[in-house]
Amino acid sequence: MLRRLFVARGRAILLSSAALIAGGAMAGCDLQEDADLERGRQLFQTNCGTCHTLAEAGTAATIGPDLDSSFFAARKVGMDQDTIEGVVQLQIAHPREINPDNPRYDQTFMPADLVTGRDAEAVAAYVASVAGVPGIEPPPLGTAQEVFTESCGGCHTLEAAGTAGTTGPNLDEVLQGQNAENLRTSITDPEASITPGFPAGVMPAFDETRLPEPNLNALIQYLMACAGDPDAEACGPAGEQTEADSPAPAGRGG
Q: Are 143 and 70 in contact (CB under 8 A)?
């Protein structure tokens, strides 16, 4: 969604006044009563989570604005959910332009229409339903594939999970021959070894509160079974493991 948006270094950008005014005209309209919020969540994670923090989606990227922070402030001054939905749709279709000569901003930007049509409607409705809601948290992590999609799929390609992120390496390629300890280190200490061609500091620091040990173990087993071989016999069962029955990876205690 709001991928590659011009962002202020070191802090989230506030919503543009033009977008707020235009969005305000849509207040109370119930824009997309039939929008698929679950699909919107999935689309957000794969298209927008690479750049944006949104607590309910389990994303914590800092390239673009923190949507919880931005819309929390908007809600405090009276912006309702329908208006937020309109603002998000406008920003998807018409990302605001910022003078690239301004030293406060870097040169990255968000392309227009990163998602379109019903997909854009679903993303906007989803973001409007959760962004900036006090105390909101993501639902409990489930299968290993769900863990991957939510925590990693926005940045990485993995055929077994149906993700096509390009911010980080293609895992079908780079995980060939890796063992459980290699994978654990790559996840928990991402700066320990940087894949050639990718900059340091892009992958968020590991947070065990977002990815508890059982989910981490299941994720490692899933990646070992499925990377580069999505049709492997072990791939399906690995993806179905839940946090309750996930085995510890080889060489580690449970």
A: no
- Which two three-digit tokens encode residue 252? 């580690």
Neighbours of 99 (CB within 10 A): 8
* DSSP letters for 93-146: HSPPP--TT-TTB-S--PPTTSS-HHHHHHHHHHHHHHTT-TT--PPPP-SHHH
Question: Which residues, other chains included, contact 106 with Cβ-Cβ below 8 Å and sequence gap of 6+?
Answer: 6, 7, 9
Residue pLDDT, tens place only, 135-178? 888 777 678 888 888 788 888 999 998 888 888 899 999 998 88
- 17-130 folds as Cytochrome Bc1 Complex; Chain D, domain 2 (1.10.760)
CA distances from 26 to 21, 59, 72, 127, 164 (A): 9, 28, 19, 16, 34
What tokens appear for 134 in the block?
Answer: 């006090």
Question: Which amino acid makes up residue 196?
Answer: P
The backbone torsions φ and ψ at residue 159, rounded to the nearest 5 degrees and listed phi first, read -60, -40
